[in-house]
Every structure is written in structure tokens, then in C-alpha cells.
Amino acid sequence: MAIALTFMFFLAGIICAKSEYIDYNTTARISPDKINVHLVPHSHDDVGWLKTVDQYYVGANNSIRGACVQNVLDSVISALFEDKNRKFIYVEVAFFQRWWRQQSKTMKVKVKELVDSGQLEFINGGMCMHDEATAHYIDLIDQTTLGHQFIKDNFGQLPRVGWQIDPFGHSSVQAYLLGAELGFDSLFFARIDYQDRAKRLKEKNLEVIWRGSKSLGSSSQIFTGIFARHYDPPDGFTFEINDVSPPIQDDILLFDYNVEERVNDFVAAALAQANMDKFIHYVNKDGRVNALYSTPSIYTDAKYAANDKWPLKTEDFFPYADRPNAYWTGYFTSRPALKGYVRLMSGYYAAARQLEFFKGRNSSGPNTDALADALSIAQHHDAVSGTERQHVAADYALRISIGYIEAEKLVASSLAVLTDSRSSTGQEKAVTKFQQCPLLNISYCPPSEAVLSSGKSLVVVMYNPLGWRREEVVRIPVSNEKVIVKDSGGKIVESQLLPLSNGTSRIRNQYVKAYLGKLPSETVKYWLAFSATVPPLGFSTYIVSNAKPTDPSSVISSSAVYKSQGSTSNSIEVGQGNLRLLYSADEGKLTHYINSRNQVTASAEQSYSYYSGNDGTDKDPQASGAYVFRPNATFVIKSESQVQLTLVRGPLLDEVHQQLNPWISQITRVYKGKEHAEVEFTIGPIPIDDGIGKEITTQITTTMKTNKTFYTDSNGRDFIKRVRDFRTDWDLQVNQPIAGNYYPVNLGIYMQDDDTELSVLVDRSVGGSSLVDGQIELMLHRRLLHDDSRGVGEVLNETVCVQNACEGLTIQGKFYLRIDHLGEGAKWRRTVGQEIYSPLLLAFTEEDGDNWMSSHVATFSGIDPSYNLPNNIAIITLQELENGKVLLRLAHLYETGEDKEYSVLTSVELKKLFPNKKVK
């Protein structure tokens, strides 16, 4: 029976240099009666990290890092041509695709022969080696699809092995969805908690069967290999550029002849767990072990052929620590603006592809390709993770913005065609010019601000990318307070004016100038909020116009504004629907959550704190940085004076405005028609004039008895049970009771006791935990002053500069919370979670008179008007491909046992989903 060991070699240059004197024998294959050492030369080309993607590829900026991917590929391919026994695996398709496009037809033919023969093999096959903690599963699917499509189109093959050797922890979604469900035979990775690795090494359990999904069980488990050390080879056998490993010297006439010594070293390394031609030649001549050029696929086949049994692994591999005080849990939150931008554009990309499908793909018009490429490389494990250098983060954001501009044109042209009543075929030239507002989150939207002031009416088209009908309150900034809103039938819609907070106005001016180089031309005082109903996979149209003297005075309500100070009551009630929040009048704090419909009443508080980042000057030099979260102390953020609540009341929603200190404020919204609270926080610039880095958190505290237990999602899919200070696979030695209990949160986090459950959903990846029973904590922003010595070599201290004045980054984001009876929270988490990921897409145009509705298509649904997708099914992808075929992906949103009503098998009627298409 073969015993197969594997060494993973990182080659940044050529595989080997051919000797002019000796013909080395590299023909070895697996030997059934020996220990087989699989030598796997592989790429590890970061798609951006210390340098940008372009700089890595062409070898620019080598003062930062000496790396040139095109030279790696040139030299590797050349070395493979020289010896048919040599093998190489390539991982990052974003780079290989560039290289491929630069090759001649003759070279492409030769490279295809290398792939066909198995000398060159694509492993993983995504555009990048993606992060597994802070990326959403839809993004992971999309970036993998792009890479696999390239490989299939050009080589007629698909990868069969997962290769996630550098991400900082590993998710259950990676195991089942991007492993077994993808068709992979095996999955390999390197980074694993140091305590976990030590136990597995001792018990020889580094190879496992990983069953990542409770719902799919054994049908989606995968053989998984964990490297015995890092993704580099044993000490002394690296042979990197500038490496000190002694080369094998086989000229017997020279004094430093060392064949026997180096063979003994190699055999010893093999038994404990390149100039590679020489090693294969002399090691096999020695005969104690059998060394061969190999790939993970060959290794996997050998393992299956051995018919071994492996231990079962469930759940995931988070959090990851590489030493006692070094938990890599800070990057769950690092660079929150980039994380938010990636998530926002991911949802936009999904909607844009749908609209392109309904319009019909046009090879000569605008498309989503640039956005797809930009989002794909943004999933890299040093991109959305927030662990890259500042200029690289800016490069990722720039690429996404360029892709957005192109996709924005596609969305505008698609809506122009779909709203044009003359365009019955969907292909006639449309004339309507639609504008969109990518800075709407900071209350900047030129069409809604300017059109009304010119006396024209504003046409608002809202597209719903979800497969079910939505009723939501939409908010747009306006300059005029005397406006009315009408729906597509000409009926006046109830609306409400909300004042802009001081914090919102400051961000609007500061960041519009930072992004656009100029201040907004209009002065906006109000948000206009109104109720909208939008059909599934379709749009509705609303008209906003200046109110006429003949219009009833009740058509729009100006919010009533109250100040809490001086209140004679002990408590203040917010909310006019089923949900009401109670605040203490004297302290200005949330005290109770009450839902009159389901009779849930709970005490609940919300607060802010910060951790001072460890500077690494104590007996352990580990600092808190872009990767590592190592708190030094905890500080509750108390208001610098009595918190004055500003209450904004109206018929659609109530708002509570709170300014905790000069750099933290928030707005809590309670919508009349919803049963959850929406908290919009504004944090920054985080002060560092005291010389201390800070990591800002918020806590939601209840009296629930949660027994150290809480649940966090895996890449927005499954929820995994977490127990404080506990690991399923080993007895945890607790060194960092805070950082060691942090987990990635992409969709949400919840906790429960015998009666109730508290759920919190997020709008981007953050780190989260329950460090105290009955309490949920989220880390929202980080600004640090020391590097954590994990390679990035730069402090995580993001700033925004306007002209020559720079200040720390301000973050505006949202989280959502709800309390339910035990077992009833999943419906909200899954439904609203989809709505957060796929917000309504708003497009604006103008009209002079009242003829829009009569001359345009005012409402549209791409599916049968009598049909909604089942509530437990979501459309993940709806895209027309270049070959005219349509790619459709559907996802069941619920795990087995998650909800008594929706955790069931469900059918979808494709004919109603595509009423005007022929389904083969």
C-alpha cells in the first residue's frame, strides 16, 4: 500500500536549471512498495497585496516586492517544454488569462498540449484564491465561474481540486458549495489554528473527510488535506530567489560536493511528515523513498486508490491563530468602506445582469464584464479581507468604480428599452436618459435634488431583483419641501419629509468633494420618504412633482421633530406600528423592545465601546493590525454630555437621532410597516491624537440566558453554532478571551434562550461575537497605529484627503435587529437578509408634463404576473451568456430544521418564471 506524502513548493521563478553535463532521471512514478513523496511545484501569485494587480503582473514597483508574474509564467512554461516529466499547477486565472492573451497562436497550441498531457494543471480555477471569511457566497460563485469559464473555453477542462493554501481560516461553504458541489475531488489548505494543528500532527489526523453542510450531509463531503506546516517546503529546500537553502552540488571535482548530505536531509524531511530534477534523480537513486513530480490530482487519486479511511470533520476552521496572542480576527472588519463597496456592487451586478437579460444582450453595447472582473479579483484573500496596502485598496476600488460606470450605462439603456412602450421587440433604439445615484447613501443624488427646483417632475423607476413582491419605504434627498408623490395609476402616495441630520450633511459635503472634487451644487435639507410596491423581477414607476395649490394639504407630512431634554415622562416611545422601542428620557438610552403583534417584550440596550489596540511593546511583541485583533483594554464610550435624543415622527417611520460624541452618531429607524429596527451608524474620524489605535464596537444587551452560545453565518449561507471559549475539535487553551471568540459575520448573528431569539443582520462583513451571555457585539470600524508583522508592512490607518487636508476615514453603515419567539427568527433573517443584499435599484429621469405614464411602460415584471417565487427560494444568477444561453441559479435559503414552515423541499415553475421563453 502506497504511503503518499506531499511537499508544496512555492516557485517564484523557474522550476529548475538543466545541467549540461548530467541527464537527470525524472521519470519516477508512484511506487506501491515505498513512501511516495509528491513534489508539487505551484503558483502563489497574489492578485494584489503589497502591490497592485498590474504591478505584480509586469514586475513594476519592485522596491516594494520583487515579483513579476509574467516572468514566472514564461520561465515555468519554458521549463515544462524542456522535460515532459516536470509538472506545475497554476491557480490564479486572473493572471494566467492576461498572459494567455499575449501569446502567439503557436505558443497557445504548445501550452494546450501541456494541459492535455497533465504537465500543466489548473487547480482551484477561480480568478483568484479567494478569502473565506469576509466574502459573500454569491461573489465566490461568480469569481469561480469566471475562471472556470475561461479554462473550459480555452482548454476544454475544468479543475477538480480546491487549493486554498493562504486564506486565514476556512469556511464550511468552501467545503461543500465551492468544493463538493463544484465537482472537486479534494481540497487542500495550509493555515489552521496552531493548537488544532499540533493535535492533528500528534494524532496523524491532518487528512479528513470534511462535511460542511448539515442539510446536504454526506452527499457534499470532500476529502481535505491540511499541510503539516505552512505552504512552503521543509527548511533547507525552498530554493526561492535570494534563499539561503544550499543547492545540491553533484560535481565530484568541487570541494562543496554534497549529494549524500542533501539526500539524507531530504529523506529525513520526507520521513518527518528546487533544483528538483537533481533531488528526484539522487533521492530515487538512493532508494529509501520514491520522489516524483506530481500534482494534487495525482496525489488525490493515489489516496483514493489506497482505500484508506479518514476522520470526519464538521463545521469550519474559524477563528485562525498562528500563535497564542495572534488571532487573525481583526481582518473580519478591516477596511469597512471597501467591504461595504464590494457588497453594494455585488448586489448591483446581480441586478444589472437581470436587466441585461430582459433587454437582450448586445455585443456592441455596454455590459457588465468590467464590473465582473473587478469584483472577481476583489474576492482575493488580501482584497475584500482588508489586508492589503492602502494604494492597493484604492486600486481595487477604482477598478470596481470603472466597472460600475460601464454597468450603469447598461442598466440605464435596459430600463430605457423596458419602459419604452414603442419598443415591443425590446430592441428598438430607446431615447430616455436615466440617471442613477451611487452616492445616495451619503444623501447625494443630483437628479432628485435638481429636477424639482426647475419646475419639472421627477420620474423614479425602481427595479426589484428579488423573486417576490416588495413593499418598502424609499428615501431620496430633495431641495423642495412642497412636493407630492404619485404611483403609476396617478394615485397620490403617502409620503413624509425627514430632516437631514448634521452628521449626514457633514459627510455629504466632505465626501462629495473628496470623490468628485467639488461641493454639491444644491443645498439639501430633507429626505423625501414614500411607500413603494414593486413586483418580482420587475419595476414600478413613481412621479415626484411640486405640489399645486389645488392638491390636498395632507398629501405629504413634514415630520414632527422633538428634543428629549426636558421631557416630563420617564420614557419615550418610538414607533407607530407593531414594533415600538422605549428610550429612557433622562439617559437617552434604549431600554425595551415591544412587538404588539407577537407579544414579544424584552429589555434591550445598545451601547458603543472601543478596544485600544495592543502596540506590541509588552513581553509579547504581537500588535493589533490589519490581520490580527489583539485588544489591550476595553473602554465604554460614554457621551461627553447628556445625550439629547432628537425624535422625528411621521406617518411612515419614526427616527431617533443620537450624537454620542463628536465622532459617533446614529439614527435608529422604526418603520410603521416593519417589525425590525434599522440602525444607521456614522463613525469617524476615530481620534488617535492620544497615540492609541482604536477598534470600535457596538453591543446589544438583553437579559437572555444564552449559556455562552450564539450563531454566525458562513459566507451568508449556513449558520454555525459557536460556544464561547470552546472548540469542537480540541480542548482550547484560552489566551485571548476576546479576539479568540470573534467570528466572521456576513449575513447576521443571533442568540437564543428558552423563550426568545435576538437576530442582528449586517450590510457588509464585520467581526462579531457574544462575549457576555445575553449580549451581541459587532466590530464596526478600526484605526490602528502599529503593524501586526504579518507581511503587509503598513499600518491600518485609513484617511480621506480633500485638497491637502487629510482626516481619518468616516464610516457610515447599517445593521438591523429584531427579537422573536424562539424558532421564529429564521423567516426574518432569510427574507430581510436577501433584501439587504439586493436593495431596490433606483433610476431617475424627468418629464415636463403629465404624460409619462401614458407614453411609457409604468410597471413591469419579468415573470408571470400571477406568480411569485416561493418564499424560501432566491434567484442567485439570471444572466444571458455570450452564446445566447441563459444561466439561472436558484438557492434554497433555509437549512434543514431551520424553520418549521420553510425548511422543506420546494418546486419552482420555470414556465412561469420565464413566461415568454421556451424552456428546453
How would you describe this protein?
A hairpin with a 2-residue loop joins strand 39 and strand 40. The strands form 10 sheets. A 10-stranded antiparallel β-sheet has the order 21-27-28-29-30-41-36-35-32-33. Strands 22, 23, 24, 25, 26, 31, 34, 37 and 38 form a 9-stranded antiparallel β-sheet that branches. It is globular and about 105 Å long. Helix 11 (336-359) packs parallel to helix 13. With 920 residues, the chain is of the alpha+beta class. The chain is built from 18 helices and 45 strands.
Briefly summarize what is shown.
This is Alpha-mannosidase. With 920 residues, the chain is of the alpha+beta class.
Apparent shape: globular
Question: Mean pLDDT, rounded to whole units?
Answer: 91
**SS-based structural class?**
alpha+beta
Portion in strands: 25-35%
The tally of strands reads 45
- The number of helices is 18
Please outline the major beta sheet. 10 strands, antiparallel
Instruction: State the helicity in percent bands.
Output: 10-25%
Strand order of the largest sheet: 21-27-28-29-30-41-36-35-32-33
Low-confidence stretches: 1-20
- State the distance separating the first and last CA atoms: 48 Å
Determine Rg (CA atoms, Å): 29 Å
Protein name: Alpha-mannosidase
